[in-house]
Amino acid sequence: MIRASIPVFCYHNVSEIDGHTPELFAEHLDAMADAGWRTLSALDLLAVVRGERKAPPKSLVLTFDDGHLSNWLTVVPELTRRGMTGTFFALTDFIRPGGPRTRDSAPAMRTMPEAFKHALQGNDFSQFINEGEIRAMLGMGMEVFAHGCRHQGVFRSLRPLARMGEAHARWPAWSIYPGYDPEWPTFDDASAYVYDGFKPLFDRPGATPRFVMRSREERLALCREDFGRSLRRIRELNGLPVQLFCWPWGQFRDDAQAELRAAGFAGAFTLERWVNARGADPFRLNRIGVGRPKTGKWIQSRLRMYGSDPAARVFFKLQRLKPEVRRILYATDSLRLSGGSRQLLNNIKAMRDMGAEVHAVLHPDSPLAAAAAGLGAEVATFDGFSSYLRAGSFLARLVREHKIDVVHTFHNRAYKMGVIARLMGARFDLFINRGVISRPNDIFFLWTAFARGVVCNSRRCADVLARYRVAKKRLNVVYNAYDGPDFGDPPLRKKRGTRFAYVGNGAEVKGLDVFLRAAALYCAQGARDTEFLVVGLRGDDAPLYDALLTPELRQRLTFAGELPHDEVIDALRFSDVLCMTSRKESLPNALIEAYDLGLAAVCTSVGGVPELVREGVNGLLCPSEDAECLAQKMRTLADDPLGRHRMGLSGRAVVRSQFTPEAKGRRLMRVYMGERVDDPLDVRPAPELQPPPDPDHD
Q1: Can you tell me the distance from the alpha carbon of 10 to that of 27, in angstroms, rounded to the nearest whole number?
Q2: What's this model's pTM, rounded to 2 decimal places?
Q3: Is the pLDDT reported for residue 183 higher than 60?
Q4: Which of 86, 461, 494, 636 has the fewest CB atoms lying closer than 10 Å?
Q5: What DSSP state is assigned to residue 171?
């Protein structure tokens, strides 16, 4: 004889404006009765799975989550009319005193999302069943158990969905935020009992939140408090010695289940689909979610699919929790503090500030080791990057010892180390950093096939890799971060002169010769109150450019030589315009730093530069090598101090909102959690400015 399984259906609200309509719900009940099925209580089901009673033939259980008012006004009358019973799971914080309401005395129905929003932050619980209605339902043979205190959510990932003020913002944000602001962002959400997730913190001036990971301990503390309080409240109302629970969103995990058991619950319902029969786990009781458009015929088909043990095993649906990222390892063999190395350090800071556990594998002679440790990373030094098998074995061991989720590599020996470690069986997601737009070697795409993704610092960089057979699904754009000192918005300077700064070395791709030719053309047309500054060229290389220096330019040009980074920032602070005249770039750090300091920019339109520099908004652009265009646009900015100041403020606003370690950290975490990220920069004009008073005017 084929063993029976007891199907359990999951509904929510039943009303004309949301959920199932009363007519469709009635069709479902009639379809069950016409097929010869009858309802059991949830406690009857518990007795069956415990082996305390035999399952009656053709038995099913009807459950209703959230305790919406329509459960009392619509569902209970329909069940009673047919001699059926139902099990209702109420949110215990939403249960308020009051007597049973009628359709005439009940408030107008809201959609379920609106009902949640009003309850969670407005303390308006009128859309949910009250104490009197629960007692009446119990008296009519229904069951009422706990669904937790308030359907607490958490941001599962940092994939942006909508701002709170937008119509399609999901209601769980109202359970996550301490208040309401139409500009606060919302993200993927899930059960706060199950996912550690991300919480908003308001620990800095202003109302803009930052997002940090919850710890496992925080999550379990919430479970402990919530389950205990919820159990006490529902027991006051139903008076039962045995209490059941329904997991919000149907999501569960072992450690939360242990807290539920410790609180005193006897079982729990999920949204898995499997066998409900003797021997089933009482804390993993299976249910079939009923979507809004489902018909009576659909109900009957599910009764056939889940009404017997063999069929339920065939049509199973088990929970698959999405992975979370808690432990990240960065690796590079670099021995110098290059732009890429500074970005590695920025990544460490961003992830640590977000609450992640960060590790780093660095060469023992690298200046990065002390800096990474100072940022809170656990540093492992290694000097065998060039021995790939040894390097892969070393990384694989670290991954296993520290349960690393993500390895993010910088420079080619490090990513090869990562690939070898994966081939050796280490389980982690590998990401390869790419910060240049030069052609990769011919087999680079093969290495990336073993990685979860490639992190590029510009769209142009990603485009180049796509042309050389790197799969687009692996390409992500995560712009660099600036973490230097904040000198505030620069005031509009009253001086009449203009200083044009070039920051870079003498490599041909950097275009110092183009800058000098443009400066010479500028001087040939008159250069009163104008200075030209070159930062980053080695002193003994300066004579190589003598042929480009006209007498007029020599009078106004300063070669500052190679400077420590803090002195480069000082040189930019007292400049007015950055001239970025490269022949090839991805997206240079010097441009980001200059914008943070409020400089306008004149740039060649190469690589990823046009992604940040928008013509007439925060800078001016010229074709590569076009010294005449550069000279003309330099003069445009020199003649318009108000305009160039406004451009500088626009550039600074972009950096302060989209190039911070926190902004980069959010993008990185989205990549690490499996999302492909390629968000364009939002570059907007600064507000119109009023000219300062003329100091020479009485």
Answers
A1: 15
A2: 0.91
A3: yes
A4: 494
A5: T
